[in-house]
Amino acid sequence: MKKNVISLIAGLLLATGVQQAQAQSSSADLRASFSRQVSSLVADATRLSTDAGALDAVDSLTRLFGGDNLRDRLTLKRDGDRYFAGLTGSGGEWFKSLSDAQGFLFRSAIAASGSAPDDVKQAITANQSVDLTTVAQTVTTAVVDNRVLIGKGGISTIVVKPRNLVATGTPAVAGPRGTRVDEVRRDGNDVTVKVAATQRTVAGPALLSVFNPGTAFVAADRISVFIVAGDGEPAAPTRRAGATTETALSIQPGDRIDDALPGNATANFYRVMLASAGPVTFATSGPSDTVLSVQDESGNQLATDDDSGDWYNGKLTVSLAPGAYIVKVAHCCEGTGTYRLLVTAGQ
Predict the structure, then answer these.
(1) Which of 69, 159, 166, 290 could, after both became Cys, cross-link 24 (CB 3.0–4.6 A)?
(2) DSSP E strands, the chain
C-alpha cells in the first residue's frame, strides 16, 4: 500500500517563495479524476488488516498532501473492537473504528508537520471530523480548489497570474521535467499556458518558472502546480488490435481502446461498423507520435492525419456512409509506444 500511494503521487511540498497558481481553468475532469484517486486510496487504507499497513497508509497520505515523514512517531494499537491512535509528543485517544483512528492520526500528523501547506492545515482545522474518508475529502477539496492541475498523457491549458512581470511583452515559461510548454499567451496580468505532460512525467507537485521577456536566468516567478494522472493517459492495453486488415479488431463508435504498437514499423488495425451516415471522429491520445488512416473495405484510403490531435497524436473527422471501415494506427517514425483510440460518431 505504501509503495503504491507514493508511486501514484508524491508529497505536496511548496518551495519558499513559490506562489499557488490561480485555478481559473483547471479541467473539471482532472479535478474529478484526482478526487477519485484519493478516494480509492483511502478505501484501500481502511481495509488494511495489519497495524503496520494501516500506519503506512496514514504516513503516505500525510506526505501526499505535503506533510513530513512522521511514520516513526505514529502509534496504532488494537484492543478487541477498540483502536488506540497516537502521535509521539501530541498524545493519543481510543476510537471505535479503524477509520476514525486513522483519521485522527492523519489530522495529528498534518498539524505537526512543518512542511504541510497552510491551506491543507486550515482545511483540517475547519473540519473537526476524525473519519479518514471525511478528512481526506476535505483536504482534497482544498488542493483542487487552490491549485491548477496538469494531466499526464495530454495537454492542459492553465491560467496563472505571475508576480513581478514587466508591463508589456509575453513572458517565457519553462515547465518541469517531463513536460513541454506549447503555447504562452498574455492578457494583462493573466498568462495562459498550454502544458503537455507525457506518460512518464512524475505525478505530484511541480513548478512552472516564468521569465520576463529577454530574461533567461532569473525567473520573475515560480508557479506551483500539481501533476495528476489524466483521464487521457493510456493504461495497459485492454484489447489488442489486429496486425493486418484481415485480423482487424472489431470496434464501434463510443469505444475507448487502450493499445500499444508492439514493435518498430508495425501498425494496428481496427474494423468499425457504422449503422448510419454522418461524421465520425477518430483520435488518439497519449505519449506516442501516431498517424491515423481510414480506408474502406476495398483498401481505398479515405483520410489520414499525423499531428492534429493533442501532443503529436493523430485526429481526423470523416463523413462516412453506413458500412465497414478500417482504421490504421501507426507510429510516424516507425517507433513503438502506447496510445488510446477514441471513436466518436456525430463529431
Answers:
(1) 159
(2) 19-20, 74-79, 82-87, 91-95, 149-151, 154-160, 172-174, 179-187, 190-197, 204-211, 221-228, 249-251, 256-261, 267-274, 278-285, 290-296, 301-305, 315-320, 323-331, 337-345
Residue 109: partners with Cβ closer than 8 Å, 6 or more residues away:
58, 59, 62, 67, 68, 70, 73, 74, 87
Task: Give the span between the Cα atoms of 266 and 251, in whole angstroms.
Answer: 20
Q: pLDDT for 303-345, tens place per residue?
A: 999 888 876 788 999 999 988 899 999 988 777 777 888 898 8
Q: Which amino acid is at 33?
A: S
Enter the pTM of the model.
0.53
Q: b/e string for 314-337 if b means 16 or more Cβ within 10 A?
A: bbbbeebeeeebbbbbbbeeeeee
What is the rounded CA–CA span in Å between residue 71 and residue 207?
27
DSSP structural state of residue 72:
G
Q: What is the CATH number of domain 149-228?
A: 2.60.40.10
DSSP 87: E
Residue with cell string 519553462: 174
Task: Tell me which DSSP letter residue 236 carries.
Answer: S
Contact, 231 vs 30, CB < 8 A? yes
Is residue 71 a contact partner of residue 61, using CB atoms and an 8 Å limit?
A: no
What is the topology classification, in CATH, of domain 249-345? Jelly Rolls (2.60.120)
